[in-house]
């Protein structure tokens, strides 16, 4: 369990109308309240591009990830999920050189959609297949929130899944009822590789958003270090100058 304390539980979402985001934030708050673990709730694309705790956590997976996604239009990704969907499709293509090893990751998935559309649940399904193909282990049944359902309605379906499916599964992991489901130290180490693999694919697919930012960040870091050293040198020089003048006047 100590390995989980060093990583936040990630709740990642993509939402067009706000329903998925609301569900994700509800889950995040309840996880923190029930178990005391740090949670990070953010857009899927922000997880890739910005990170959940600054630049260095871009694409940094956690041992436990809860995904909440919907479909938009003809099975496309909704707001906040465009890049993640592109990464998933890249992995699911025949490109044998593209891989992300998520064997150290466990996940749960809540999907929202409208069954009156022929592409109902396409984006959540692509997300599930992507996670499974990368080796991530699903901890419970997928939640299917159908907007066309009336009895129960979508909100009730979501709440039932949270109460009766997701949190009983989380209890087994986070309350130590099933220690075999906890990540080992080797699992934690492999998350570093997963981060680099994910970042490499993002740099390939979105060079303007990732390569340039990486270079700019490195340049800013170098400038800060250089300026910091220079400023320190100037201050030290001024101090010595003042001391020298004081000694000469004595």
TrEMBL record:
The keyword Coiled coil does not apply. Residues 9-166 form the Flavodoxin-like domain. Keywords: Flavoprotein, Membrane, Transmembrane, Transmembrane helix. The keyword Transmembrane helix applies. It comes from the Eukaryota. The chain crosses the membrane at residues 228-248. One of its GO terms (cellular component) is cytosol. Signal peptide: none annotated. One of its GO terms (molecular function) is oxidoreductase activity. PANTHER family: NADPH--CYTOCHROME P450 REDUCTASE, NITRIC OXIDE SYNTHASE-RELATED. This is Flavodoxin-like domain-containing protein. It comes from Corethron hystrix. The lineage of its organism: Eukaryota, Sar, Stramenopiles, Ochrophyta, Bacillariophyta.
């Amino acid at each position: 369990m100590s390995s989980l304390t060093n990583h936040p539980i990630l709740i990642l979402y993509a939402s067009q109308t706000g329903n998925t985001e609301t569900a994700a934030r509800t889950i995040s708050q309840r996880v923190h309240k029930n178990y005391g673990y740090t949670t990070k709730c953010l857009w899927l694309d922000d997880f890739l591009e910005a990170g959940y705790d600054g630049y260095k956590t871009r694409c940094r997976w956690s041992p436990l990830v809860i995904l909440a996604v919907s479909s938009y239009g003809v099975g496309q990704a909704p707001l906040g999920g465009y890049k993640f969907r592109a990464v998933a499709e890249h992995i699911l293509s025949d490109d044998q050189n593209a891989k992300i090893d998520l064997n150290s990751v466990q996940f749960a998935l809540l999907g929202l959609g409208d069954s009156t559309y022929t592409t109902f649940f396409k984006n959540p399904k692509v997300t599930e297949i992507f996670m499974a193909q990368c080796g991530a282990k699903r901890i419970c049944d997928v939640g299917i929130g159908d907007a066309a359902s009336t009895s129960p309605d979508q909100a009730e379906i979501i709440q039932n899944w949270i109460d009766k499916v997701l949190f009983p599964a989380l209890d087994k992991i986070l309350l130590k009822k099933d220690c075999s489901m906890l990540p080992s130290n080797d699992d934690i180490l492999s998350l570093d590789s997963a981060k680099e693999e994910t970042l490499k694919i993002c740099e390939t697919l979105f060079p303007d958003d990732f390569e340039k930012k990486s270079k700019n960040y490195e340049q800013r870091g170098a400038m800060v270090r250089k300026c910091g050293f220079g400023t320190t040198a100037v201050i030290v020089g001024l101090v010595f100058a003042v001391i020298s003048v004081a000694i000469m006047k004595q």
